[in-house]
Design goal:
By secondary structure, the protein is mainly α. The chain has one domain. It contains 11 helices and 2 strands. It has helices at about 1-30, 45-65, 70-75, 85-100, 115-140, 140-145, 150-155, 175-185, 195-220, 225-230, 240-255, and strands at about 110, 190-195. The chain has a two-stranded antiparallel sheet.
């Protein structure tokens, strides 16, 4: 009976994740929702800003806190290790839904791209970012990441297996393609409002901190990660970094000529 409950719980958590994931895309991209990230301002500006910061902080604390090894060890003293990942998925989905539900748009426009080609490029980059996120989840075992593999193996009586350290496709270009996809999706918008800028800046700051925490855990679990970290850049592919460095060098040389 416990195995059946774990399976049902895992499937329900996965369905919740899928709905939340699609809802988040529409929320950030202002696609067909009555309230989105860039809606008109509601209520006093400072109060709304503090609420938004609190919601972002809540999500960050939940997401990174529950991902730590020490927290997992404490949690699995209370619940079965089989549903630990499923519980993380439920909590993360709930925190994200709370952020979306109680978010307070702030009004004000930082930039607005009116050119049709420019808007098309930014929307394409937005879609590409979410696509990278989705594809990356399958590269690192989508069903293990969202807890389905664990409850399925438990149902069949198979022992749980620890994820192996692999670097498929995107992972050969950057160490954290999942986060790179999120950054692309969060920053690429033809209309950058104050609320959107707050969201993008705070999530970027969180991602940079989360990477440090995640890499510390990865180094403990997989000593070979140290060599991988030395070879592969964190978020920006080497080709783009090289082009940026070359562009800066040309700019400096041109300035010295003047």
């Amino acid at each position: 009976m416990k195995k059946i409950f774990a399976l049902v719980y895992g499937i329900a958590a996965y369905v919740l994740f899928l709905g939340t994931f699609l809802y988040a895309i529409a929320f950030v991209g202002n696609i067909g929702l009555p309230k989105s990230l860039d809606g008109p301002a509601t209520g006093p500006w400072l109060r709304s800003c503090l609420i938004d910061l609190g919601l972002l902080s809540l999500f960050a604390l939940q997401h990174s806190g529950m991902a730590r090894v020490a927290f997992k060890e404490q949690l699995t003293r209370v619940i079965s290790p089989t549903i630990e990942r499923t519980t993380f998925v439920v909590a993360s989905s709930a925190a994200l839904l709370a952020l979306i539900t109680f978010w307070r748009p702030l009004g004000g426009i930082i930039w607005s791209v009116e050119n049709a080609a420019g808007r098309a490029i930014l929307y394409s980059a937005f879609a590409c970012g979410w696509g990278i996120v989705l594809v990356t989840t399958f590269l690192i075992n989508h069903f293990e990441l969202f807890g389905l593999q664990q409850v399925w193996r438990n149902l069949r009586g198979h022992p749980q297996v620890s994820p192996a350290f692999v670097t498929p496709l995107f992972y050969r270009v950057v160490r954290h393609p999942l986060y790179a996809g999120f950054l692309l999706a969060f920053w690429c918008t033809p209309t950058m409002t104050v609320a959107h800028l707050l969201f993008a800046v705070m999530t970027t700051a969180y991602i940079l901190v989360a990477i440090q925490l995640a890499e510390r855990d990865l180094l403990r679990a997989h000593p070979e990660y140290a060599h991988y970290r030395d070879r592969v850049p964190m978020l920006i592919p080497k080709t783009l970094r090289a082009r940026h460095a070359a562009h800066r060098e040309i700019s400096v040389n041109q300035s010295s000529v003047r």
